[in-house]
Write a structure and sequence with these properties.
- With 651 residues, the chain is of the alpha+beta class.
- Among the domains are: 134 residues, Succinate dehydrogenase/fumarate reductase flavoprotein, catalytic domain (Flavocytochrome C3, Chain A, domain 1), CATH 3.90.700; 106 residues, Fumarate reductase/succinate dehydrogenase flavoprotein-like, C-terminal domain (Methane Monooxygenase Hydroxylase, Chain G, domain 1).
- It is built from 17 helices and 21 strands.
């Protein structure tokens, strides 16, 4: 495969990346790699230190396990407690290829569903590892306290999720992420109490320290005092989540940001597939221009809820007045095999098409219905409440409407990012010693993530991959001292962070950071949203660059740097978002095909589905940003031996 050249000389093209896969069949690659990792004598582990940034499922798992193994772990979170990490927001469930129900599931089917769901733009060997370790994840999470739902006879209950036709998703009502995060945070607290992990809360990573060609520490800002400090270690693990909040209106928490991964990128870590952004089809619609974010309603609701719009454009009757023949259950009509459980990219794209064609519902005509009328009649209120009760309560609290009585109103919202820092098979970035886990990395999901694979991938990385690959790297550093925090590289990185803060506070403009963030979201939703076009992307690229220039000329940061200052926090994050957004648009413009969530309107089938170009683009694009701001695109060619490449069809 020869990857196409650059568009209009907007960037350079560099050499291909090597994922470091072991030789031999892909189905046992993880077994062979796991057996070949170098080991560290228990007596030497206490002399080796690791920094873990982030306390979601990946961060908690890595910190707790490495601490229990005997390594010295410094763990950082910008929250006031580890358990407040954004993993709590994943509601619907966690997948596992255990095949406990007699419905045809298997490890091979898990791999096929995940690779196909990602539209053949993810690394097959990593998906195999994800499926293999998924079998252990459920038992492990149950052992540390996750209260999974059970059938009447005591067996763990499962349900289906989008993109599959089997029942492999384990859940705790609509609180799965929250319950898993609580269990993992308790495991972390055990190691904190034992002294093997030192926890640093309300502390944000602002930069990565690279010395002698490898990651050896981070620079942080104490969010209460404003103090900048260098922390050094033998290795660094980033588990800081995704960058969906770049769109301003997103399902992510307001504090979610991309600074840790973006700063690592600016230090040399390749950023892979930045344009691959998933829009969740069951987010609540924006109801006001002053709304700060959107709210996620779990995909699990699509098991029993039916999605529809009025068949007649502009029909403004209340839903109960629209008779059955005048309703368009468009997913069931277009995709009869999967119906309302089509993958998220397909469901979001179809919802957007219905809304833009005049069939949208609600006060702003910007949503579709998710209706539980038939399920309530069939199952009864008590059964539906047992499955989704807290989600129904959350919807009622957010909207004032009772979903037991009226349909929910939903719309696509920026949610999960399949892109992230590029990692090899060991979860190590292009900077030696910098490991990345969870949504902050890129390797599993390709161009679209299947629902309930996010909690799984974060858990596998944190509990079963990083605790093996990180020690394998550390083994070569036994006897090597930790970089001194007063070393030139550390002091220089701290100084650069100070200069960036000083430059930001010195602008003295008229507009708050949130104004620029809101405007950036408008540009991205219009030009690099659910669907994209060359014309829209070229316009977005110009607008993002102009907005970046305006930001550095007119942003206003009130208050000082040496104190609690949330405006400064937002300003630093928005500055990084503006740089990241340029790369996202550039990546989308560069990838001249449609694949999964990256839907280029010029590259679609006659039926309006994504049309891949496997001859030119069966690869992962990974980008470097040079000190002068220019970009270099590298590629990781992909191949598939277990799953035949085919046109993605859910009909």
């Amino acid at each position: 495969m020869t990857t196409p050249g650059p568009v209009d000389g907007l960037y350079a093209v560099g050499p291909d990346l090597d994922p470091g896969l072991p030789d031999g069949p892909v189905e046992d690659a993880w077994d062979r790699r796991r057996s070949s990792y170098r080991l560290v004598n228990p007596a030497n582990r206490r002399r080796l230190s690791v920094i873990v940034v982030g306390t979601g499922l990946a961060g908690c798992g890595a910190a707790a396990t490495l601490g229990r193994l005997g390594y010295r772990v410094e763990c950082f979170s910008l929250h006031d407690a580890p358990r407040r990490a954004h993993s709590v927001a994943a509601q619907g469930g966690i997948n596992a290829a255990r095949a406990r129900k007699v419905d045809g599931d298997s490890l091979h089917r898990f791999v096929k569903d995940t690779v196909k769901g990602g539209d053949y733009r993810g690394r097959e060997a990593d998906v195999v590892r994800l499926g293999q370790e998924s079998v252990r994840v459920i038992d492990h999470m149950q052992a540390i306290g996750a209260p999974f739902a059970r059938e009447y006879g005591g067996q763990l209950a499962t349900r289906s999720f989008g993109g599959v036709q089997v029942s492999r998703t384990y859940y705790t009502r609509g609180q799965t992420g929250q319950q898993l995060e609580v269990a993992c945070a308790q495991a972390l607290q055990e190691q904190i109490a034992a002294g093997s992990v030192r926890m640093h809360t309300r502390t944000e990573m602002l930069d990565l320290i690279v010395a002698d060609g490898r990651a050896q520490g981070i620079v942080t800002r104490d969010l209460l005092s404003g103090e900048l400090r260098a922390w050094t270690a033998h290795a660094v693990v980033l588990a800081t989540g995704g960058y969906g909040s770049v769109y301003h209106y997103s399902t992510l928490a307001m504090s979610s940001n991309a600074t840790a991964t973006w700063r690592a990128h600016r230090r040399g870590a390749a950023f892979a597939s930045p344009c691959m952004v998933q829009f969740h089809p069951t987010a609540l619609p924006v109801s006001s221009s002053w709304q700060s974010k959107t709210t996620l309603m779990s995909e699990s609701l699509r098991n029993d809820g039916r999605i529809w719009v009025p068949a007649r454009a502009g029909d403004d009757r209340p839903p109960h007045e629209i008779p059955e023949p005048e309703r368009d259950y468009y997913l069931e009509r277009r995709y009869p095999a999967f119906g309302n459980l089509t993958p998220r990219d397909v469901a979001s794209r179809n919802a957007r098409e219905r809304i833009e064609s005049g069939h949208g519902v609600g006060p702003l005509r910007n949503s579709v219905y998710l209706d539980f009328r038939d399920a309530l009649e069939r199952e009864g209120r008590e059964v539906i409440a047992s499955r989704y009760g807290n989600l129904f309560e959350m919807y009622r609290d957010a909207t004032g409407e009772d979903p037991y009585e009226v349909p929910m109103r939903i719309a696509p919202g920026a949610h999960f990012t399949m892109g992230g820092l590029w990692v090899d098979f060991d979860q190590m970035s292009t900077i030696p010693g910098l490991f990345v886990g969870g949504e902050a990395s890129n390797n599993y999901h390709g161009a679209n993530r299947l629902g309930a694979n996010s909690l799984l991938s974060a858990s596998v990385d944190g509990w079963f991959t990083l605790p093996l690959s990180v020690p394998g790297y550390l083994a070569s550093l036994v006897g090597t001292p930790v970089l001194d925090a007063s070393a030139a590289e550390a002091r220089g990185t701290v100084a650069q962070a100070q200069e960036r803060i000083a430059a930001l506070t010195a602008v003295g403009g008229e507009r708050r950071p949130v104004w620029f963030h809101r405007r950036l979201g408008e540009v991205l939703y219009a030009g690099c949203g659910v669907s994209r076009s060359e014309e829209g992307l070229r316009r977005a690229l110009v607008e993002v660059r102009e907005l970046g220039e305006e930001f550095w000329a007119d942003v206003r940061i009130v208050g000082g740097a040496e104190r609690l200052n949330q405006e400064l926090e937002r300003g630093l994050r928005v500055a990084d978002f503006l740089e990241l957004a340029e790369l996202m648009v550039l990546d989308a413009l560069d990838r001249r095909e449609s694949a999964g969530a990256h839907f280029r309107e010029e590259y679609a089938t006659e039926g309006g589905e994504a049309r891949r170009d496997d001859a030119a683009w069966c690869s992962v694009s990974a980008w470097h940003t040079l000190p002068d701001g220019s970009h270099v695109r590298r590629s990781e060619p992909l191949s598939f031996s277990l799953v035949d490449m085919q046109v993605r069809d859910y009909r």
